[in-house]
């Protein structure tokens, strides 16, 4: 054995005495660096990308801007720069971010052979190198430093955390600080007079849908007497949820629901089997895809930790459903939403108050307009009640106080007249036709405008099927299917899907392949 080999063997074993890093691994320098730290590592906030997930992550992010750091794991300067980059990334990335949903901070290891072509596309000539731009511009994109006009920009002054954040502030006119604390800042953008900000709420709807699903499973709320109402609500989500991810995820749950939560689950033997297998198996389904939940809110983020968030996201989901349904579906949607809130919304006082408003409806809804306006009116009644309680207890969000909605700033044409009562409350004479037009636009096209920009909807921008096509997917709910037959014949785009649902009903076998639902 040569003297060189004799010297190398103890050196290799001494580099990482307690790690499992293989001899010859390109990550051995990183392992040495980790072992030299005396304290525990913080979880990295910056997202590691490679050629397999680069386009997907940047296409699907809700963030307005993105930074991509190109580095090499063997580069000492890159390792020394990482703490600076992470310090800024923790402001914007992850569930504990101070300013979530604004900037997605990522990194790509160009020393990994899988990323060679990716790094070449972006003309990486030194390490570390930082590029800035709209996330969509990175998707299947490139960067050429010789071009005078680039939609992707080189960050030329970001060698420390302070300088990088200063560069960011200059680009977007912000005042972020490394000392900013979560929910203790003045950087939240007011959405009172900017209707286009509702587009960011599509991500909050996904978050609320996923949160509601998790609560239902965690609290074991699916019982023989509640399963039918959950099925009806899932049917609505499959057809009319604004997010394609949630439509597909809801379809997966619905197709497998009878097997996992059978209709006779109330019997002792079935109840025991379902608790052991069914509900546990339901946890394997991610109702809005693997990217959700993200752990933070965007449009619905309050200025305090305990305000807005889930309840805001759920309200927006309900409003969006109310304007997306067809006239013939309005009563079915009304009962499905009322029963869902009554059975599965865990705030006792809130759900009882909502259900009392449902019970006060004396005649069925025949038009989308009527149901959408009823839900809008119900929401304002809730706000009227809560604004008084929050004012007396000091529990409201000072930056986002409860108001009668929409404000005159958002929809001037919605108001015939506005006056004040003797007690200081507002007396509004609404133009209900204009209110419905506003609701349809605000919770319809405007809400999904970001999804259209990212190409996550169908070619027609709606990508929907008929609710009644799905109304017979389970024996728990029986409704007329005449409308479903007519729509299936009229719509070749979704004819295959309609046939799939009918065959499932006929055979009573809910065996699901995701590609069967690709048009949902």
UniProtKB/TrEMBL annotation:
The keyword Secreted appears for this protein: yes
InterPro entries listed in its UniProt record: ERV/ALR_sulphydryl_oxid_sf, ERV/ALR_sulphydryl_oxidase, Sulfhydryl_oxidase, Thioredoxin-like_sf, Thioredoxin_CS, Thioredoxin_domain
One of the Pfam families matching this protein, by short name: Evr1_Alr
Catalytic activity: 2 R'C(R)SH + O2 = R'C(R)S-S(R)CR' + H2O2
Localization (cell): Secreted
ERV/ALR sulfhydryl oxidase domain segment(s): 303-405
Class of this enzyme: oxidoreductase
Single GO MF annotation: flavin-dependent sulfhydryl oxidase activity
Superkingdom of the organism of origin: Eukaryota
GO biological process: protein folding
Required cofactor names: FAD
Ranges of residues in domain Thioredoxin: 36-173
Keywords linked to the UniProt accession: Disulfide bond, FAD, Flavoprotein, Glycoprotein, Membrane, Oxidoreductase, Redox-active center, Secreted, Signal, Transmembrane, Transmembrane helix
Primary localization class, coarse: secreted
Signal peptide, first to last residue: 1-20
Keyword match Membrane: yes
PANTHER family for this protein: QUIESCIN Q6-RELATED SULFHYDRYL OXIDASE, SULFHYDRYL OXIDASE
Protein name in UniProt: Sulfhydryl oxidase
Source organism of the structure: Vitis rotundifolia
């Amino acid at each position: 054995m040569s003297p060189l080999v004799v010297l190398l063997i103890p050196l290799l074993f001494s580099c990482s005495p307690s790690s499992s890093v293989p001899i010859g691994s390109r990550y051995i320098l990183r392992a040495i660096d980790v072992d030299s730290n005396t304290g525990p590592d913080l979880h990295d906030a910056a997202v590691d990308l490679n050629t397999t997930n680069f386009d997907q992550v940047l296409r699907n992010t809700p963030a307005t801007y993105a930074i991509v750091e190109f580095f090499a794991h063997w580069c000492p300067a890159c390792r020394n720069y990482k703490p600076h980059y992470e310090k800024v990334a923790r402001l914007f990335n992850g569930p504990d971010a101070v300013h979530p949903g604004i900037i997605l901070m990522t990194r790509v290891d160009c020393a990994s052979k899988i990323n060679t072509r990716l790094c070449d596309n972006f003309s990486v000539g030194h390490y570390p190198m930082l590029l800035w731009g709209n996330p969509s511009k990175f998707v299947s994109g490139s960067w050429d430093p010789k071009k005078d006009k680039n939609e992707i920009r080189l960050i030329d002054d970001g060698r420390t955390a302070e300088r990088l954040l200063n560069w960011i502030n200059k680009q977007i006119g912000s005042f972020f600080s490394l000392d900013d604390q979560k929910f203790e800042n003045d950087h939240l953008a007011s959405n009172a007079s900017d209707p286009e900000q509702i587009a960011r709420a599509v991500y909050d709807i996904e978050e609320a849908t996923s949160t509601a699903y998790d609560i239902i499973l965690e609290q074991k709320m699916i019982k023989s007497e509640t399963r039918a109402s959950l099925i009806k609500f899932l049917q609505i989500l499959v057809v009319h949820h604004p997010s394609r991810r949630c439509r597909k995820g809801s379809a997966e749950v619905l197709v497998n629901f009878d097997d996992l939560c059978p209709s006779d689950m109330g019997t002792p033997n079935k109840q025991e089997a379902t608790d052991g297998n069914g509900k546990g198996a339901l946890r394997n389904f991610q109702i809005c895809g693997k990217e959700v939940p993200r752990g933070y809110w965007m449009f619905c983020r309050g200025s305090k930790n305990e305000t807005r968030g889930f309840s805001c996201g759920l309200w927006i989901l309900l409003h969006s459903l109310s304007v997306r349904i067809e006239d013939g579906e309005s009563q079915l949607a009304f009962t499905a939403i009322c029963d869902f809130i009554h059975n599965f919304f865990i705030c006792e006082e809130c759900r009882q108050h909502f259900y009392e408003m449902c019970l006060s409806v004396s005649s069925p809804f025949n038009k989308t307009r009527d149901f959408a306006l009823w839900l809008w009116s119900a929401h304002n009644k809730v706000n009227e009640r809560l604004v008084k309680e929050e004012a007396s207890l000091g529990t409201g969000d000072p930056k986002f106080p409860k108001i009668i909605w929409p404000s005159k700033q958002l929809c001037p044409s919605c108001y015939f007249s506005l006056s004040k009562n003797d007690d200081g409350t507002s007396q509004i004479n609404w133009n209900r036709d204009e209110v419905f037009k506003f609701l349809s636009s605000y919770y319809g096209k405007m809400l999904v405008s970001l999804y259209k920009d990212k190409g996550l909807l169908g070619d027609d921008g709606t990508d929907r099927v008929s609710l009644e096509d799905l109304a017979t997917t389970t024996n728990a709910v029986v409704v007329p299917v005449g409308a479903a037959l007519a729509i299936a014949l009229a719509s070749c785009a979704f004819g295959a899907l309609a046939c799939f649902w009918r065959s499932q009903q006929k055979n009573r076998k809910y065996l699901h392949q995701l590609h069967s639902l690709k048009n949902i």
